[in-house]
Amino acid sequence: MESVVDIIKFAIENEVRAKVFYGEASELATAGESKMVFMELVEMEDTHAQRLVDIFGEYLKGEGMDAVAFLGDLQANIANVLNSEQRKLLENAEMRPVIEFAIGMEAQARDKYLELAKLVEGDELVKICNDLAKEEQDHFDLLTEARVGVETPIDERTAL
């Protein structure tokens, strides 16, 4: 089982990685709806990373980790944040696999927050973890809707 520190580090890194991935995906997206979804997610993921540092910074400091420096290092090395699988997906520029991968990232983030909620102590921290899991589920749902838009030919989409 992962430690609380491992999960928080993973979560911070995952939020930064998601921000970069979504930013690059928004540049690839040709459909206006998909582009807007990715642009919206960039802002949300950036907020999540900082929230994690703000919420768990003192806890991590007590465990010998500087969360502010960790986030700063990730942001300073932003070009190296994406792994080879993510880079390849983006280079192929096919929107459906990009959206599928993003859906998986959101599911993984949601599950990590739920796991963290079981490990932290105190009602407030449990609530924060559950709130973050809910936000990741909302991202999952948003991306699932975007996937439907990508899969549906323009002439078959419902009018707004």
Protein model, in words:
This protein is mostly helical and 160 residues long. It has one domain: Ferritin (Up-down Bundle). The chain contains six helices and no strands. Helix 1 packs parallel to helix 3.
Summarize the structure.
With 160 residues, this protein is an all-alpha fold.
Return the average pLDDT rounded to an integer: 83
Q: Indicate the CATH architecture.
A: Up-down Bundle
Uncertain residue ranges: none
Please write the CATH class name. Mainly Alpha
Question: Level of helix content?
Answer: over 70%
> How would you spell out the order of helices and strands?
HHHHHH
Radius of gyration: 17 Å
- Contiguous helical run count: 6
> In the CATH scheme, what's the topology name?
Ferritin
Tell me the fraction of residues in β-strands, as a range: under 5%
The CATH homologous superfamily is named Ferritin, core subunit, four-helix bundle
Whole-number total of structural domains: 1
Count of distinct strands: 0
Structural class: mainly alpha
The CA-CA distance between the termini, in Å, is: 47 Å
Could you give a short account of the major beta sheet?
none
Question: How does the overall form come out from the CA principal axes?
Answer: globular
